[in-house]
């Protein structure tokens, strides 16, 4: 499957995200909604990375219908909209959590509690450790990590997810890892990577730099990331409740 930024944006003033289902609920904003588009773009990148919206072996059951599907941390609902369009005989519920939520042990434990026997849990999470970094990008990443630590947001959860799953008696655990490039050095998904990472870097720079210097700073960071071919890893964990 291929993807490009044109899949997410018709023009700067017309929001056209991953599917018409989102448009039917949110309408078309009068101005370009970058936060919503970033969320939609990230959703599509993750979907392409893992060859679909789910990795559990439940396609036949979804087609048959009757399953109850829960999306925790649903955000703007992109995943739910697509799943409910593709498998219309199932029931879907989406709930969101606060950005500062860091009690992952209790969150996974509660997810297991409400999951029926034989059901599957999938967790997709970013690894904060960035690879192949130059000095400028390393300094920015450190500022972001320090800010997250200050807000008591756990950044090492990827290293513990499998352990927490096992402690809650989840079985048949499978872990997938994909490299997520930073900058504009990778066009495997068309403009998707450059568009997403440039916007993400800009948002990070705005928090720590004078707004007047953002464009120059962004250019410097992108140049460095391209030179070193900087990337971070995205992990998906799939497990079953027996």
Overview of this structure, please?
By secondary structure, this protein is of the alpha+beta class. The protein has a domain at 123-242. The protein contains 9 helices and 7 strands, in the order ββαααβαβαβααβααβ. The strands form 3 sheets. It has a 3-stranded antiparallel β-sheet. It has a two-stranded antiparallel ribbon with strand order 1-2. β3, α4 and β4 (91-95) form a beta-alpha-beta unit. α8 (192-208) packs across α9 (214-228). It is globular. Mean pLDDT is 81; it is low at 1-32.
Distance between the termini: 33 Å
Please provide the count of β strands: 7
Runs in which pLDDT lies below 50 for 5 or more consecutive residues are 1-32
Q: How large is the share of residues in beta strands?
A: 15-25%
- What would you call the shape? globular
Rounded mean pLDDT score = 81
Summarize the structure.
The protein is an alpha+beta fold and 242 residues long. It is 43% helix and 21% strand.
